[in-house]
Amino acid sequence: MDNKHDILELLRQVADGKVSPENAMLELKEAPFEDLAYAKIDFHRSVRQGAAEVIYGEGKTPEQIKGIVERMGEKGCRNILVTRISQETGDYLSRFVPIDYHKIPRLGIAFPEARPGRGNIVVATGGTSDMPVAEEAALTAEAMGNHVTRVYDVGVAGLHRLLSNLDILMQARCVIAVAGMEGALASVVGGLVDCPVIAVPTSVGYGASFGGLSALLSMLNSCASGCSVVNIDNGFGAGYLASRINQMEGIKEE
């Protein structure tokens, strides 16, 4: 019972008399999570939130990640995101499970499965140095079934670069604005588009940027309406939230 379609099928079988209510109850009781001692895998995450549980790789051993990913794959989970892992860990996992490893954002997608992109999310960066965080956001959104357009290196130091992409920005259902330094990109984008803007401060910048704190505070104090902020370098969180926003109409229709 790792997705809502499985649960619906089980309920239909109960209604048709093919499965007893007692057996159905047993399946549902066993379904929510599995205890691997070092991790409790939440198999009902896709039922509640529409996507499989995401594995935060930093701090976990390659063997632990392998155990979690393999079990999730056996349960039918696909496009399993494994964030913040090294090339070495990605190479290790590839010996046991199918995985697409992306070096720049240090992100792996296990049991990759092509999904038709819905809607349109635009990911924009202030500079090329913001790409690791931006790619984490973009790949997260794509793995969750969204169409993503990348507009990189369009920071306010050369505002004409951003304005030349105005038609792309204005067609988006949601824009993820990724920037370090003073973090001005989010406010500028927020003043140009009619869709939600998710601001992502990055730790890119010189000493007085305080590891992304100055960008975070700038984005939190943005005067542009409709602009929200995630944590420093949290590309995954931005991509996940953008997917929710982008697919809201489709979720309601289903």
What would you say about this model in short?
InterPro entries: P2CMN_synthase_LarB, PurE_dom. The chain is built from 12 helices and 11 strands.
> In the CATH scheme, what's the topology name of the largest domain?
Rossmann fold
Task: Give the biggest beta sheet.
Answer: 5 strands, parallel
For the terminal residues, how far apart are their CA atoms? 19 Å
Mean pLDDT: 88
Helix content: 40-55%
Rg, rounded, reads 20 Å
The oligomeric state of the chains shown is: single chain
What is the number of strand segments? 11
Strand content: 15-25%
- Shape estimate: globular
Q: If classified by CATH, what would the architecture of the largest domain be?
A: 3-Layer(aba) Sandwich
Strand order of the largest sheet: 8-7-9-10-11
Number of helices: 12
CATH class membership of the largest domain: Alpha Beta
Tell me what the structure shows.
This is Nickel pincer cofactor biosynthesis protein LarB. Pfam families: AIRC. Residues 119-251 form the PurE domain. InterPro entries: P2CMN_synthase_LarB, PurE_dom. The chain contains twelve helices and eleven strands. By secondary structure, it is an alpha/beta fold. The radius of gyration is 20 Å and the shape is globular.
Topology record:
Layout: H1 4-15, H2 21-30, E1 33-35, E2 40-42, H3 45-49, E3 55-56, H4 62-74, E4 80-83, H5 87-94, E5 99-102, E6 107-110, E7 118-125, H6 131-143, E8 146-151, H7 159-163, H8 166-170, E9 174-179, H9 185-190, E10 197-201, H10 213-220, E11 227-229, H11 235-246, H12 248-253
Parallel strand pairs: 3-4, 7-8, 7-9, 9-10, 10-11
Antiparallel strand pairs: 1-2, 4-6, 5-6
Helix pairs in contact: 4-5, 6-11
InterPro entries: P2CMN_synthase_LarB, PurE_dom
Organism: Mordavella massiliensis
Protein name: Nickel pincer cofactor biosynthesis protein LarB
